[in-house]
Prior knowledge:
By secondary structure, the chain is an all-alpha fold. The protein has two domains: about 1-45, no CATH class; about 55-500, Amino acid/polyamine transporter I (Up-down Bundle). It has 19 helices and two strands. The protein has helices at about 35-40, 55-65, 65-80, 85-110, 120-125, 135-170, 180-200, 205-230, 235-240, 270-295, 300-305, 310-320, 325-360, 365-370, 380-400, 400-405, 410-430, 445-465, 480-500, and strands at about 5-10, 15-20. The protein has a two-stranded antiparallel ribbon with strand order 1-2. The protein is globular. The termini are close together. About 50% of the residues are buried. The model is unreliable at about 1-45 and about 505-518 (pLDDT under 50). It is a multi-pass membrane protein. It holds the Pfam family AA_permease_2. It comes from Saxophila tyrrhenica. This is Amino acid permease. InterPro entries: AA/rel_permease1 (IPR002293).
Amino acid sequence: MDTREQIELKNYNNGVVETVDLRDGNGKEEQGLSASQQQRSNGLNLSLDKYINFLPTVAFSGNLQCSWEAVAVSFQAGLLNGGPTSLVYGTLLCWIGNLATAASIGEMASINPTVGAQYRWSGLYAPPGIMSPAFWGLITGWVTVFGWIAVVAQPAFLVGTIIQGLITLNVDSYVAQPWHGTMLTWAVLAVPVLCNVFARKVLNSIEIVGGITHTAFWIIWVVVLTTMARRSSSEYVFETTYSGAAFGGWENTAFDGVIHMSDEVRDAERKIPQSMVLSVLINGVMTFATVIVLLFCIGDPVAALTSPTGYPVIEILREATQSKGAATALMLMLSWNGIVALFSSLASISRLTWAFARDRGLPFPTFFGAVHPRLRIPHNALGLVVTLVVLLMLINIASLSALFAILSLANMALYGSYLLLVTFFFLHKLRGGPLVLGPFQLGKWGYAINVFSMVFLVFIIIWLPFPQFMPATAANMNYAGPIFGMVILLALVDWFFWGHKRFSVPTTESVFVEEIHE
């Protein structure tokens, strides 16, 4: 029997992973690598280095969600709309819903772990006869990329303005100005950007250290608050409701971030879905506990909500410890975790943008799809993301409400991409489409988990555009819905004028083969 050797090549012109035969019928080598060589001559390397192991993958996913930290600095919105009860039960519902969604997406990641994730899979599982697979892929790609740009902007802005709030706390003569927050945000952004460019190999170490501090600092917070703060009653925490239009809870996204690192994760078919589900499970426990602790230890709610620092949690910590220094130290712990999340989100979005460009989803695909030959990072894609985030922060100088509206796009866009993806995958299974499951499988519970995920996502997407404060005015209106609509409109314009000519996604299952002997 003749021996035929095959290797896996990634053809980024059409988004399909191909198995290329390197020998002809006479056993002589063919020019199977010519496409690869041509791509390298254009600066389009075939792949990134695989160097990320399981523990850093779990830590990466957990750090990226920045769960308890995000709830600590933003829980006031849920508190004002629905009250403590809404926060408690809303967080519990979101935890279960996010877990079902992560499991559903994890099953797809196990079948075909790909940097493109949402836009690749939406094209792969799109229902036949309803537009083309490329249409769904391009629309989903636009939504996902814009959502992830907002994800990057969030921790940068929060850490920058937390530092500004701490200056307000400690320096009585300081008068906060919007442009101060913008400058601090840029400064916070600089360190993770430099690390992503020049210290890519430290990602493993940073994620492990970040995972440790993510957990250790949470324990410190819980111990300090539960031992030093005066307690609210259980009636206040579990029975108090306020009238309001918004849904309070842990509207957590970004657990898909680790998928966008697929090309750099070893044994991605197993490790990526496992790390997604495990990180959502762990972060859910920490977040739910944080909500309970903050509500029991809130002290004077009016004083917290009217804090001149802009962050009620700073006042909660100051009152609990009776020390500005202690409150500052605790907030700096939280800020460090936010910087780690920023490092992770920059790594994830740069890979997603790079993959989308290589599949010709973005203009100038050769430029934005390039990998630096020495640094081995998608440097142009990273530069595009950083430039957009820097420009977004300028909006803060003119209107904080407008900036919040854009930042709120993160949850709206990513939850929307999850809903489309889970729905298409569910319908694909229902109609008996071709499917070879990977090592991570939901088994007989798969359909039920998919349905619960879809119901949860529809519910949460309905609530996300509602105003956070009533009565709604031009100044406090939630513009997430209109901005999300604008992104969809831009994607549609791109598709009908240019995208349908340049963009394509795989429409069949990819086969991953390193070496086959027959």
